[in-house]
Amino acid sequence: MGGRLNLTVRKERPVRFNQGMIVDQHTDNDLVRPCDIKGILHAHSRWTDGAHSLASMVETAREIGLEYLGISDHFLSPAHQEGLDLDAARIQLAEIQRLREQYPDFDIFQGIEFDAGPGGELPQDDDVLRQFDYVIVSFPENGGYDPETFTRQVIKAARHPRVTILSHPLGDLMLRKQNGVLDMESVLQAAAEGKTVLEVTANPTCSELDWSHCGRAQELGVLMTISPNAHRAARLVDYRHGAERAREAGLRCASVLNTLDSGELREYLAMGSA
Ligand SMILES: [Zn+2]
Ligand SMILES: [Zn+2]
């Protein structure tokens, strides 16, 4: 059995899963493989800018062998006018409940993707953030700031206690081959302090630079999630490409959040909102 994600990294109190079998010593066999990925935490539906219905996304995720899907539609923002407001999020949750009943062998998490403000702040208070199973924060203005401002923005979001996942902050910059615009060492240290998960993108068209930071993230004990950011059902399967790249980059299962099964993930997320 490969190395289990050490859930104690999130909070100091010890948490034991799998009959206490948290493995601390790693071998090459612990390197993540596509089959270790149990679910996806970054996907969009027609509720916002996705091409397919929530039901289609769930059905596809289930058909390709995943155990759960976190749907993380955008929250309303200037960059996402189609985003959910709180009323829409409540109606979406009712649909999620119906789908959970329809597919009792499959779990669905309701995440939300917020655009960070210029200073890294989130547009809603903690009570609102707590209503979602997890919070992804992304940086739509990346590249629009000088490196120091951008780094400060990402660090502030990384330290936010309610932020679960930093969406691949280098996203569009990678496509434009702009390196050095973000002080990744400082970001990774902030993620380690804030116990924030770093997303590594599984999208085959935009992967290069993400992986170069994975080794350091792992050294610092920063968890990562392999995410396709799927805006259509056919892109969900990109997680397999992501896992292969992660393996090449030396990522162990113990560093990858979405190697947890749905029960373990629920427990992990509950620690974050405690
Ligand atoms: Zn989107
Ligand atoms: Zn997204």
CATH T-level topology: TIM Barrel
What's the overall geometry? globular
H/E topology pattern: EHEHEHEHEHHEHHEHH
Widest sheet: strand ordering = 1-2-3-4-5-6-7
Second CATH tier, the architecture? Alpha-Beta Barrel
- CA radius of gyration is 17 Å
Tell me roughly what share of residues is in helical segments.
25-40%
List the helices and strands and how they pair.
Layout (H helix, E strand, L loop, with lengths): L38 E2 L13 H10 L4 E4 L14 H17 L4 E9 L10 H4 L4 E5 L8 H13 L5 E2 L4 H5 L8 H11 L2 E5 L6 H5 L1 H6 L4 E4 L11 H10 L13 H11 L2
Parallel strand pairs: 1-2, 2-3, 3-4, 4-5, 5-6, 6-7
One zinc ion binds next to loops.
Q: What do you see in this structure?
A:
The protein has 274 residues and is an alpha/beta fold. It has a single domain, classed as Metal-dependent hydrolases (TIM Barrel), CATH 3.20.20. Helix content is 34%, strand content 11%. It has helices at residues 54-63, 86-102, 126-129, 147-159, 171-175, 184-194, 208-212, 214-219, 239-248, 262-272; strands at residues 39-40, 68-71, 107-115, 134-138, 165-166, 197-201, 224-227. It has a seven-stranded parallel sheet. Helix 4 runs parallel beside helix 6 (184-194). It starts with 38 loop residues before the first strand and ends with a helix. The model is unreliable at 8-26 (pLDDT under 50). One zinc ion is lined by residues 44, 49, 74, 231.
